[in-house]
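Form 7-S
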Amino acid sequence: MKLISKYLKPYLWFVVIITFLTIVRGVTELLLPSLLGNFIRDGIDAGNTTVMWKYALIMLAITIVGTAAVILSSYFEARTSTSFGYDLRIAVYEKVNEFSIEELNSFTISSLITRSTQDIQQLQQVTNMSLRMLILQPVLAVGGIIFAIQTHAPLSIVIAVGIISLLLLLTLIFVVSVPKFNVMQQITDQINLVTRETLSGTKVIRAFGGDELQHEKIDKVNKDFYKIGRFINAFMVMTWPFMSVVLGLIGVLILYLGATKYVNINEFGYESLISLNIYATRVIMAFMMMSFMFVMVPRALVSARRIREVLDTEQSIKDPENPILIEKVEDKMVATLDDDKKITFSGSVEFRDVCFQ
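Output:
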């Protein structure tokens, strides 16, 4: 995603702040299950009220710190992503303004409208989600795995099986989604084209009795968009039940195996089993959130490629490196060429009633 990194560079300090706040948020979420286990073991089971108050206050303080980190990071995420979208829109707008008729025809007006609006909006949303999820979820996933292994290594194998299943699903999502999202954006261009034809050529269409033909065009592109949208949505919706089943099975297996084989062995009590189950849920949920990002990333890749095509287009009309200098000498006009050769001619350069506003 070179395009995103290029236009995020001016906001690098914001990204650093977001990363720090997100790590703080992740650490606070990971500390709570361990403290909860200590609260149960050393406080409730032992009947020690002092210890219970101690852990309760520590957990409250950690929760407050985590909440503050969430609020601040959300502010910087929104500011960074909207600024990124603003800069990208300006860049595309300025580039399109420099296009000649040849470049405009090569893209078509409808496609340029889609690229300047929907594609940039898609990249802005992915940037916002990336700043939030692609930093937080890996922290929760890696940290959760480490804490789970420290809590009970043998039972952590169940989490590993769930992770492998989700990784296979993520790979399938990526392979299937990228070509389909590319087709969807092309159909969106066609919808914009037909809509623009209908709105701008209403009088001509009615004058020549082309209403039925125009309706057929609109119906065709709408059906194409419906078919591709139905396939993508159905495919994506089917992935969530699978993830929920994986999450439920992992929780059941950990509780069953822990309660029947490992509880009260080597100081592994029910409080540790509860903490381990929470860590397992954190890890699987982190991968589920990352899978949600993988749903958005393929479409963002298509949008980024389409925007880069606009920004990387070479202009057919360029200002000359050494423009001809024309100046007035006495009553004659003198033009100086590249080889310092001068041409004298009669006439004058004059502007009247010219406005560039």
